[in-house]
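Here is one chain, start to finish.
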Amino acid sequence: MEYSEGEGLEKMAKVKIRRGDAEFEITDITFEQLKELVGMNNGHQHMSAVPVLIEEPLRPRPVGPDFEGFTNALSERGRAFLAILRQHQKGIEAHELATALGFADARQIGGLTGGGVAKIAKRFHVNLQHVYSVKVAFPDNKRTVTFYPGKLLLSTLDEQRKPA
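Its structure:
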């Protein structure tokens, strides 16, 4: 249905109604008449047609975090980020991490973690605090940023080390 106001004091409308392939037009209708036509009167909605039930397939809700789906959805550099953190259980300084990832500047890590990893983690219900943590320190008045693996990364590392 299209609605366009006409000119004048009463503001008459022209309404086009389409239903399937059929289309018809009503001209010089007031807003009150238009509300009546679509089945709304004084803020209450009236059923002018029989409702049609549209069945949508039920999607199973995730029970918990899907870490495997999360890691599979990451870019190659995102997976490299996780692998490097696994290798450095006691933490890795941002400049060293940036070099290992092939970045020219440590600030580029923010684009990877915020723009990429964080959005994917949300989609797979993974808490990023369980994937990695960041500590900012100021030894000798020099700012250092260190990345640490979270408990999810460490637990998957433990599972990989177990003999089959």
